[in-house]
Design a protein that fits this description.
The structure is a homodimer of 171-residue chains. Chain A is of the alpha+beta class and 171 residues long. Chain A has a single domain, classed as NADH Oxidase (3-Layer(aba) Sandwich), CATH 3.40.109.10. Chain A is 35% helix and 19% strand. Chain A has five helices and five strands. Chain A has a four-stranded antiparallel beta sheet, sandwiched between helices. In chain A, helix 2 crosses helix 4 (91-109) and helix 3 (54-63) runs antiparallel to helix 5. Chain A is globular. At the A-B interface, helix 1, helix 2, strand 1, helix 4 and strand 4 of A face helix 1, helix 2, strand 1, helix 4 and strand 4 of B.
């Protein structure tokens, strides 16, 4: 029941307490949960770059068009997939997306706030993050997760249940 | 804390109580939670086909190479993305993968068992599911989620925490 409640109350947070830093032990708790996501044949092809350096954070707001609110956040977590570790071509996108969702739920479960900013499928953003972070060619960034202490508890998400999206036995 | 505990104990379930059916009200609870996943600009491009018909289930085991255990499960839920609803090309893969992870966590939270069987990125499987379920050309199947009542509580997942996958500020 508690798990389900958490799944229904998570939502994007974009306002953070400036200067308040998440301890590395908590960052590792969050990333541990991301690493418990399912993956094709359990290959776990993910890698995580945690950006706390203010200069690198600023560079990120220059290469990502929708991440200006990173300024007050504690960290940017760039969730990547290693194409040398994935089960088959493009599987890294699926596996790392599940890991991002676990990460966002973990952030919510800890009373922190987070927001998923897309890098994939935008080739220009992927390239820019690879250059900025020095990622090897085989390590592809999927998502930028901005995380910090929320200024306020965000309101509940609007009702997203759409029964018309459920089809029985065939389309 | 409870949310986090659920995230760390979910794992694939492939043995189900034969003949025991999940009520549709529970199926809808599960899919509601899937629909609370984040998506690019909140486009929610997902669609779900719930297969309970025994003949269609059998056909699925013929077109998917790793789903023979569907036989005893209550249902197969095919999670699809509508490319007419997605934010940008290939965004449906990301959004629906997050929805699949929410669905698996919801299944776990309800004491049911589920397993993610990949359809994407395999073109042949995608085509076969489109044909079998009568999906329109713009509706792409990402994953087959097999769900049912588990025969036994599966053991805890092995430790998946790999601190070497965490990089600070750059690769």
């Amino acid at each position: 029941m508690f798990l389900e409640a958490g799944l229904l109350t998570r939502r994007s947070v974009r306002q953070f307490e400036a200067g308040r830093k998440i301890p590395h032990s908590d960052i590792e708790d969050l990333l541990k949960i991301a690493m418990y996501a399912p993956s094709g044949c359990n290959r776990q092809p993910w890698e995580f770059v945690v950006v706390e350096d203010e200069k690198v954070k600023e560079k990120i707001t220059e290469i990502h068009p929708h991440a200006s609110f990173l300024k007050d956040a504690s960290a940017a977590i760039v969730v990547c997939g290693d194409t040398n570790q994935e089960l088959d071509e493009n599987f890294w996108v699926v596996d790392t997306s599940a890991a991002v969702e676990n990460l966002l739920l973990a952030i919510h479960g800890k009373g922190l706030g987070g927001c998923w900013c897309a890098i994939y499928p935008y080739e220009d953003r992927m390239k820019a993050f690879q250059n900025l972070l020095g990622l090897p060619e085989n390590v592809k960034p999927n998502a930028l997760v901005v995380v910090g202490y929320p200024v306020k508890t965000p309101p509940q998400p609007k009702d997203r249940f759409k029964p018309e999206k459920i089809h029985y036995n065939k389309w």
